[in-house]
User: Fold Flagellar biosynthesis protein FlhA from Caproicibacter fermentans.
Amino acid sequence: MKLLNHVVSLFVILIIALIIIPLPAFLLDMMFIINISLSLIILMLTMYIKTALEFSVFPSILLITTLFRLALNISSTRLILSHSGSAGQVIKTFGTFVLQGNIVVGFVVFLIIVLVQFLVITKGAERVSEVAARFRLDAMPGKQMAIDADLNSGLIDEQTARRRREDIQREAEFYGSMDGASKFVKGDAIMSIVITFINFIGGLIVGMVQGGQTFGDVLNIYSIATVGDGLVSQVPALLISTATGMIVTRAASNSTLGEDVSRQFSSQPMVLLLAGCGVLALNLIPGMPHVQLLLLSAFLIGSGLMLRRKLEQSAAAPAQQASGSSAVPEQSDETSYYKNIDHIYGLLPLDAIEMDFGYSLIPLVDEASGSSFIERLVTFRKQFAVEMGMVVPTVRLRDNGLLNPNQYVIKIKGEEVARGEILMDYYLALDPGNRTGEIDGIDTIEPAYGIPSKWITPDKKDMAEIYGYTVIDPLSVVVTHLSETVRRHADELLSRQEVGQLLESVKIYDASLVSDVVPNVITHSNLQKVLCALLKEGIPIRDMETILETVSNNAAAARDPDMMTEYVRQALHRTITRKWADGGQIRVITLDSEVEKSIVGSISKNEHGTYLSLDPQTTQKIITKLTDCIAKVHDVVNTPVILTSPVVRIYFSKLLQQFYPRAVVLSFNELDNNIQIQAVANVTLE
Assistant:
C-alpha cells in the first residue's frame, strides 16, 4: 500500500515531465495504450460501485487523467511536426482505420466524437454535478437531524451515527469537487480541437516548406497523423466523460448498476411484451427489414413470457409454503378440530408484543416485498439490550382486516396501547420548530413523540430538508413508534422468565453472587419488582452485578421492594447521572422545603407498607405549581427533571405518575458529586 502511494506520486511527476521531455515513438505507443486501459478501468469501476463514495477519489483521478492526456497530446504533436507525421504505430493505425482513404469522412467522424463528448456527456454531467452539490449541501442539516432522531430512538448506535455523519460530509464534499472537476473534461475537449487544428495546419506548413513533398502526399501523411492523434486522445476522454456522467447520475442503491438494470427491467415483463408487439407491427410498413424486425420482436416477446412465468412461480412459492406449514392440521371443519379441548388451550397464551396492520401496510413489513422491517427490529433489540440491559421479546406481526387500510396497532399482552396511521407513498416531514420555509402536505401528528408533521410526496423531500424539516420514511415512523412504546412499557415486558435468564447471564462471570443473593436474600418475585420499578422510571438494569450486591448489602435495612429500589437507584448514581445530565450539568426543578415537609408529614404506614396520604387540596396546589414551572422552562428543558430529597423521592414520584407519566424524579443521592446542578424553577405552596 505504501508502494502504491509512491507510484501515484511518481506518476503525477512523470506526467509533468512528458510535457517537457521528448518521447520516442515506441514509448509514446506504450503511454497511449496505458491511457486507454486506465480509462477503461475507471469506466468499469463506476459501473460496479454501489454508491459514489466508494470511488470518492474520482475528482482527483479525473484531474490526473486529463493532465495525462494533454501531456500525451503535446508529446505526439512534437513528434508529428518534427518527424514528418510519424508519431508511432498507435496513431498511424487509428488514423488509417478511421480515414479509410477518405480525409473528409475521417475528420467528420472525429469532430462528431468530440462534439458528442463536449455537448452531450460533459455538459450533462457538469449540470448534474452542480445541482447535486447544491442540494446535498442544503439537505445536510435535515439529514443530520434524521440521524439524531434515529440515534435517540435507539434504531442505531453511536458508531453507526458517527459513520453516517461522516458519509454525509464526504458526500457533500464529493459532489462539490465533482462540480469543479467536470470543468477539466470540458476544457480537455476544447483543447483537443485546438491541438487537432495545430497538428493539421502546422503539419501542412512543415511538410510543404521543409519536406519538399507534393501537396497530396503531405495532406495524406498529416491527415492520418492528425486524425489518429485526435482519436487516440478522444477515445479515453470519451470513456472518462462517460464515467463522470455515470458516477454523478448514480442513485443510492444496495446493488451495482448491472444488478439494478437487470432487476428493474425484468420486474415488468408486460413492458417487454408490448414492446415486442410494437416492433412486430413495424413489419406492416413497406420497405422495412423484415428479418431483423422478426428476430428482435421474437426475442422481446419470448423474454417477456419467460419473465412473467418466472414471477408467477416465485409468487406462488410462498403461498404453497405457508399452506404446507399451517399450524392447524386439515380437518373436515373448524368445529371438529376444536372438539379436542387441548386445541382450545392453544388459543389462550398472549404474545408480549403484537402489531396489527391494515392491508395497505403489509408490504411495509413483508420481507418478501423487500422490507427491512425485521432487520430494523433486530437492530433496535440489540440497541435496547445494550442501553437498558433487557432483551425485547419477539414481536408478533399480523394483518387485521378490521383496521383502516393505512392503520397499525401496537398491543402489549393482547391489549392495545398505541396506534398510528401511515401513508405508504409519502414521507413524514417533522417540524423541528426552526424551519425556514413552508412545505405543502397533509397535516398530521407524529405518533411516537406527538410532533406536528406533514405527509409529503417524494418529489418534495429534498425541498423539505432544505427548509429544515426532518424527513422520515414510513418504515422509520413505524419502527420509531414501536421502539418508544416498548420503552414506555418495558416494566410490563420483564417477565419472571426474563429475570431468570438475566440471572443466568450473570452466573457466567459471577455465579457465587447469584447463588448467595437469590433466593437466600431476595426472592425472584421481589427482585422482579425491583427491576420493574427501575425500568418504569427509565433506569437501565444492565449492571446486574451492582444491583445484586446492593440488594445483598441492604437486605437487613429494607425488606420492602420499594425501599430496596431506592437503595439500588442510589448505587446506580453514575448510570442515572449519565442518562439525565448533559455536558456535565443537569437542569432541574426543585421542591421548596415547605412542600417536602408537607409530603413527609403525610407519609402513613400499615401492615402492607408505607404510602402517601396527602390531602386533595395540598395535592392540587402542588400539581398546579409544578405545571406552571414546567410550562415556564419548556423551552429550556425537554424532559422535566424534579430533584428532591431521598426521603421524598419515592412518594412524590408515585404522586406524579397519574399527572406526568414521563416526568423524571431524582434525589440528591442519585447524582454524581461532580455534576453541576442548575435549578431552573422551584415549586412552592404560595
About this structure: Residues 321-332 have pLDDT under 50 and may be disordered. The longest strand covers residues 676-683. Residues 21 and 75 are 8 Å apart (CA to CA). Residues 158-211 form the longest helix (54 residues).
